[in-house]
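In this section we walk through a basic example: taking a raw amino acid sequence and producing a predicted 3D structure, encoded as discrete structure tokens. The instruction is simple. Fold the sequence below.
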Amino acid sequence: MKEVIELIRLPNCVLSGFGVIVGAFLVRYFNYYNLTLGFLVGFLITAYSMIINDYFDIEVDRINSPQRPFASGRVSVRAGLGLALLLFLLGIIASAFINLIALLVALFFALISFLYSWRVKRMGLLGNSLVALSMAIPFVYGSIIAERYRPLPFLLAGIAFFAGLSREVIKGISDVEGDSRRGIRTVAIEKGSKRASELAFAFMASAVALSLISARYFVAWYVYLPMILVVDYFMLERTWSLIKDPTAKKSLKVKNDVLKLMFLALIVFLISGALAYVG
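The resulting token sequence is shown next.
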């Protein structure tokens, strides 16, 4: 079980699942049956994507992350791919019970995940953008489930996109050695780690700007704004610190810190939306 949790990158799966719930929550949709299915779709398709990514990255991970389940041999490729297929099927079945658009979007992003891991990842910033898009879609997926299309979930998707894009560029700094051997054209390889860290900060600043714009769409903006400002400060501080020290070791720490801060931002969205509903 420990290897499976590590293989699917459990925090990423939970983040995607709860992103769907937050997206629906913010348009005042509370069909618990469909929300449970939506969480499962986000969780399962993300888990499938993580395994597929590790499968295509075995050789790179033997350099960058030799402790990963496939790279270390703790999980066999056959068992891992079997699990990926099962997760994919369960996620698609869950989406089919929601509505047709939910099914089509789930299939589309499962395909994108495969194409990214197979080919597009080598294309640097384009590959990073696809990963960021997969981090943004859960908020919109909540609206798809509810069939209610309002600005706030799309703004939060934009925040997730730019924050996720920043994190992916940062990840490229820590993976330079393995990525260069596989021919992956990350910003860090093409432009250098310093330029990559500056770009990561610019993307994070874009996410922060969208988070401030979003305040006007929260009924409880007076609660949302001070909480998101705290998260924004640390997002900017963490990415700015990488500009001053754009090393692989530092980027690995900043990448992990950003993921934790994204969880905190998700909690801020949830609390702020809940207060509007209670009111």
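Looking at the output, two observations stand out. The chain has 14 helices and no strands. The mean pLDDT is 92. In the next section we compare this with other chains.
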